[in-house]
Design brief:
This protein has about 280 residues and is of the alpha/beta class. It has eleven helices and eight strands.
Length: about 280
């Protein structure tokens, strides 16, 4: 009898040890929160108590490209992240059949899933949560920062900043037409006839009420469309009276991807995360 009890204790102990081993993996998972579903790519280190960086890709034309964009964005953030024991979750949020800004619903669902359901579903403990976004992904995380508190937000070249200006250039034939402006025009008409509809979706309309500290990175050798409204956006953010801390890092010779290319931007990115 004593031998059987001893064997039973040993087996339970072994099974517990095996089950508690933290494994590293990368997987794509469809998650859901409040009946809103979206695909995410999860890159988990061999650890179960985790700080998490939730990242968002830039603009793509077709939804068949969003998983590739999500993986590429994950790789870019992972390459500059000094903390190798941090889990990264990249959100493949839709773009093809939605107006710019409406996909904030899927992006919010991913954040709320991470806050409230990921620990149980993945068998981990989620500790700190940071948001990171590039281009339209920077637009997304800036908007999410007006909606929910996290441990910090990093936005690289966030935009579109000013859809009235950008889409008017397209309407006048001064720049090539884009899917973003074409879809808005089909619903709202031109920027001349309905400028408010474009303004309401521009990032210039989301420069207040930041619930968490935020770091903006902008290359000053970015496109003229981005830089045209950058100074106004920056000043509006700095003028905010109901925002948490705001930090700007401008890279004089930096391109649209300055965060991933500039040693200065990478250092500030890691300093920001390590200090929060």
């Amino acid at each position: 009898m004593r031998l059987l009890i001893l064997l039973s204790v040993l087996l339970c102990s072994c099974n517990k040890d095996v089950g508690s081993v933290a494994q590293a993996y990368r997987q794509t998972k469809t998650i859901s929160y409040n009946s809103v579903s979206v695909d995410v790519v999860i890159d988990k280190p061999a650890k179960n108590d985790l700080d998490v960086l939730l990242v968002f890709h830039g603009t793509v034309r077709y939804d068949r490209e969003i998983l590739t964009a999500a993986n590429n964005t994950l790789d870019k953030f992972k390459a500059i992240l000094d903390k190798k024991d941090m889990m990264i979750v990249s959100v493949a949020y839709p773009q093809e059949n939605v107006l710019l800004g409406d996909n904030i619903v899927q992006c919010e669902a991913a954040l709320l899933w991470l806050k409230n359901k990921a620990s149980q579903e993945l068998g981990i403990t989620v500790k700190k949560i940071f948001l990171g976004g590039h281009s339209q992904g920077g637009y997304v995380v800036t908007r999410l920062n007006t909606m929910h508190q996290t441990d910090g937000v990093i936005a690289n070249a966030p935009g579109p900043l000013n859809l009235v200006y950008r889409c008017q250039l397209e309407e006048n034939g001064q720049v090539q037409s884009s899917a973003v402006c074409t879809k808005l025009k089909n619903v709202y008409g031109t920027t001349t006839n309905n400028p408010n509809a474009y303004s309401e979706r521009s990032l210039l309309n989301f420069t207040g009420g930041f619930k968490s500290d935020i770091l903006f990175v902008q290359g000053l050798n970015d496109s003229p469309i981005q830089l045209h409204s950058w100074t106004t956006f920056k000043q509006d953010v700095l003028n905010c009276t109901n925002c948490r801390n705001r930090q700007f890092v401008e890279i004089p010779d930096g391109s649209h991807g300055a965060l991933f290319e500039s040693p200065t931007a990478k250092a500030e990115f890691n300093r920001f995360i390590n200090s929060h």
